[in-house]
Amino acid sequence: MSSRRSEVPRFGHGSRVPGWDDAADLRKDPAVVPDAATTPVPADLRAEIESHMAKYPDHRSASIPALAAAQRHHGWCSPEAIEQVACVMALTPGYLFSVASFYDMLETHPVGRHSIFVCTNISCSLCGADDLLAAIVDAADGDPDLNIRSFECLGACDIAPMASVDGVYVGPVALDEVGTLVAQIKAGEAPLPARQLGGRAVAEPLAAIPKGPTTYGGQMPEEAPGPPAPVEQQSPIPLQDADQSEEGAT
Ligand code: FES
Hints:
Elements: H1 43-53, H2 63-74, H3 79-89, H4 93-100, E1 114-119, H5 122-126, H6 129-140, E2 146-151, E3 163-165, E4 168-170, H7 178-187, H8 239-249
Parallel strand pairs: 1-2
Antiparallel strand pairs: 1-3, 3-4
Helix pairs in contact: 1-2, 1-3, 2-3, 3-4
Bound molecules: FE2/S2 (inorganic) cluster (FES).
């Protein structure tokens, strides 16, 4: 097997991840909180943002989940999306853009519908992540629907080399599985069901999130409604069904 590591791009600062290169436009007028009378906000997006705001004593703490909700709605944190979040949260678009441009899972440019983040940090790198990234880029063949990028440690080093596919962790991914993986993503199927972190056995199956007060403070009286965090989501297709469909295809 030939190594393709030299083909993985490095950015100016020597890293494989892009970093923060967009300079602020200091010629712009100071932003103001958008006028609710002239800023239409989809009802479901407004409800989701408000549900996140209700979870925190300082509603600015909901900026990240609110922006993530807007990104799911619009496909990226577009100027329109940021205006809508700013309107609901009574913040300036500039404040929210500073948050969106810092966190690299919030997209401030249009991207493909499917996010494929290949970890190229140390553990994955030592296990062939550069080859994996190059192979996925090759297999995608320029499909604009796929947002493929390298990423810093995704916290699943024990399944290196790994990738996050629309928030579903898969690994270790072998090079000869890349064609199947990309075909599954394009078809909207569960990515490599047998390689999903969510389907792995755990050391302590009875382990549960502690009930009641923790060392981090008292328990919240009740959970405000809202979708799960945008990372580490379960595959939308139940693993059992996905396994069966995979078996049927072979
Ligand atoms: S180094 Fe890849 S998940 Fe940690």
